[in-house]
From TrEMBL:
GO terms for cellular component: membrane. It is a multi-pass membrane protein. It holds the Pfam family MFS_1. PANTHER family: MAJOR FACILITATOR SUPERFAMILY MULTIDRUG TRANSPORTER MFSC (PTHR42718). SUPFAM superfamilies: MFS general substrate transporter. This is Putative transporter protein. It comes from Gluconacetobacter diazotrophicus (strain ATCC 49037 / DSM 5601 / CCUG 37298 / CIP 103539 / LMG 7603 / PAl5). It comes from the Bacteria. InterPro entries: MFS, MFS_dom, MFS_trans_sf. It is found in: Membrane. CDD domains: MFS_MMR_MDR_like. The keyword Nucleotide-binding does not apply.
Amino acid sequence: MALRSVPDTSAPDAPARRTLAEGEGLHGTARAMAMFAVALSVLLSVLDYAIANVALPTIAHDIHASASSSIWVINAYQLASVSTLLPLASLGARVGFARLCRIGLGTFVVASLLCAMSHTLLELALARALQGVGGACIMSVNIALVRFIYPHSQIGKGISLNGMVVATGVALGPTIASAVLSVADWPWIFLINLPLGGAAMVAAAFYLPRTPRSPSSFDLASAVLNVVAFGGVIVGLDSLVHRSGPALAVWLLAGGAGAFVQLARRQAGRSDPMLPIDLLAVPDFLVAFGVGFGAFVASNFFIISMPFALQSVLHRSAVATGLLITPWPVGIVAISLFVGRVADRVPAAILSSIGLCVTGTGFVLLCLLPPDAGNLDIAWRIGLAGVGFGIFQPPNNRAMMVSAPRGRSGSASGMVSVARLSGQTMGAIFVALTFGFVTHDPTLRCMELAAACAFLSALLSASRLRALR
């Protein structure tokens, strides 16, 4: 169903007073400021996730939580984000992508204040879940907004810039967390979101463009089924892997699977479904989604297991470990500007396949590291893998967006984030499974699996070359 133009008066002072058509794009200063608003919003949500990871041991100590239970400070954010992405993408198509982004920013800022005021693990986990919903509001529509900010011929450039912002947030997270914790208590890692969030809200209010809105009503029942489906499957798999109540894990998995079936039945035949089964029926979209999912499984095999390898096998300190992993996001950022220039001209079948092969090669070289490897030997291999990932991501995301029918930008944007978050979540579960069942050097097995996933995803990406003949 094509979106129709509905006046959006939520930001009366916005410079673009008319509703943009998809693919029309903004120009000059208007485009730069709109992209600045999107980038600042995305940076806020990504940066906070990375900062909380680093601060977790300090938080656990101060709120008297065990190391295992404190993981819910992270899991609550991730679970809330994954479970609400598609309903929020659907809502964004109905209320306007810019409006939902502003709602997400407001929610995120309020949740950040609640996080800083929390005194127990339950309070903090609930506030983090609310933060996850705010972050999902932003991430469910950010690429859809890029599709309106840039003309059709330059979408790849905008998506590449968006990916560079995500990588920058990941890279800055550990540094900012260390800096804050060196001079202040952990609540300040959440309080610094207030000025950043305030600036993002002002930019979003004035510069994000109006977009067409779908006239259909929001399907609340499907939204609830979506949350139950994703939540049940993810929590059930996590419980099963950690062997924490196998009976409950089975019930959660069964409930989640049942909710997925019911959701699919409810969405069948709809022109604009919340669970976009119709998009997955588009071959180009399905392949790009599968490539993205597999690539992020590979990345999490590396990201989660590599710190253990550096500290327990290669005998690096915690500080050295953080510095040695930094070439991964630096590699992504460094190559993003180049990829942005060519992503609109070179097909994803070529660029993404090359990128994933480079990433897989970097992982293989890490597997071959000798026990007495020097820091430079480690760093350039990690940087090589990061460069490959930076080559893969923008063109593959662009392929998902341009293969979606006009009027389905919200659903396509949500599915780009679903591919990333679900891949990361499954990667984390597979790492836990590997650590639980492999007794001898599980970090090496994880790195081997990371390489295998990267090369398999490259093969899937290369299957698109047939369509270019």
